[in-house]
Design a protein that fits this description.
Elements (H helix, E strand, L loop, with lengths): L10 H26 L10 H4 L7 H19 L3 H27 L3 H22 L1 H8 L5
Helix pairs in contact: 1-3, 3-4, 4-5
Length: 145
Amino acid sequence: MFNSDSTPFPEGVRLIAALFAFCGIYLAILAIILLVSPGAISLTAAAPLLFGLELAGPYMFLLLAMGGGAIAWGLMRLNNIMRHAAVLAACAGIVMLIPSVSGAVVSVRLKGLVLGGLGIIVRAMVAWYLSQGHIADEFKTERST
């Protein structure tokens, strides 16, 4: 896919948008299952994405699914505000993962340490990539549709 000014669409942005879309779809599917059949699945199925907010129930799943979908849509449209929202969401995810990684280190749980560490790495990569100057410039250029 090429932009109207014949510069290639950043593949990293497309990948990050797909990541947000996948998370949003996952949360939406869980929310629908929970709304149709309460108790069919555990609320902790979304714990890696919601960090305690899953206790608010399926409506919180839907709210964050819409947020993830909006970020994905905005990234594909090269919307600068959604780029900032994606960086903010990634940084918030890093902050929320720190206690679980620290707890995994203290209690010597390798699985928790690996999964938490990978979560931090992926979120740091998203924030770093979207914060680069040449990527930010892609979001600031005026495009005709």
